[in-house]
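Problem: given the chain below (224 residues), write out its structure.
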Amino acid sequence: DGETHHGIFDVSFLSAIPNLCIFAPATFESLDRFLRASADAALPMVIRYPNMKENDRIKAAFFREESNETVARADFTDPEENLAVVITYGKIATEALIAAEKLRAQGVSCGVVLLETLKPYAVVADKVARLLPKHAAAVVFLEEGIKSGGAGMLTFDALHKRHGAQMANKLTDILAIDDNFVIPTQSEPIYRTAGVSANDLLRTLVHLLAKIKKMVLTDSPFSS
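Solution.
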């Protein structure tokens, strides 16, 4: 909707408000659930949602079965099968699914975790930790918001504080918007302008996986 209406700053500045909960429902059913919960919530809530219809690809990947899960959903059943994991939320999850599919086509197992709760970050970190493999892996957080103070930074901070041993053999990165208003060129998709497209994510994952491959041969946490 133009450089002043991308909605890229809300997660970052709202995360600084104490005792505020932030949710990012991915389906109409989830949106309805969070709206109903807000009626008698003990804490203030923010519910963010895109100005678009429900995404069939996201529904097919993460909502295959009925569940009361409100924090995080995965497009896989066994975390230990994944050499790479992408954590994301909102409509950009489609880019994560595309990148994971391309990586799997190269013979590398990659899972995607969709967050519907962003804050409290401690709650999110505990849930995400259960969806990460115990072995060495590349973990990338993809978001269409500003990187500074965003969900990626705060989620990884909580993961390292609360699950440091599990994160010791993980290489992590955040793909988000770097301190600009994202003014696209006339013919370029806005995700590409912002550097958060599926291809940008794929390059990041391949780079981290190459580094892990080298490190497993050394005397490091990655060799275990």
